[in-house]
Amino acid sequence: MSNTESKQHPAGSLNPAPIVQGKCNCGSVQVAVAQPAFEGAAHALCHCTSCRTSGGTLASSNLIINSEFITLEGSGLSLKSYRDSNTDSGNVAVRWFCSDCGSPIRTVVEGKEEVSYLKTGLFPVQTLPAPSVELFSRNLESFEKLQEGVQVL
Ligand SMILES: [Zn+2]
Ligand SMILES: [Zn+2]
């Protein structure tokens, strides 16, 4: 039997795009992102009050990625969402998180689910593009500093 490529991959995916993988703290939720989308994503730091509260941090760190490039793997049973209507933007943010370990996974704006705000902390260290934009910077604490060269909104 010859060792042809068609044995390796299903038809139509002879050269599957490379992916970047991330996961929540307990591993129940695994995330795969097409590498070009990952590397080309805008990295946004968001200082809005509901990002602070939901993440337990002063800013959320998000890759803004077209949702079609993201695959959620693992059992997925622990994935839950919170419909956050009390936001600084006035939009409804649907915040997806792992209900077993509490890791935030991604946020989408209700009605604009084609764009995901994927939490950077899911991915291995030193794999991320530098932040390019900071949102709700008016909320910065006096000791916080903006990243160099970012767009400030
Ligand atoms: Zn988890
Ligand atoms: Zn926010």
From TrEMBL:
Family: Belongs to the Gfa family.
Record domain CENP-V/GFA: where: 20-144
Source organism of this protein record: Leucosporidium creatinivorum
Protein name: Mss4-like protein
Gene Ontology MF, one: metal ion binding
Domain of life according to the entry: Eukaryota
Alphabetized UniProt keyword annotations: Lyase, Metal-binding, Zinc
One Pfam family here: GFA
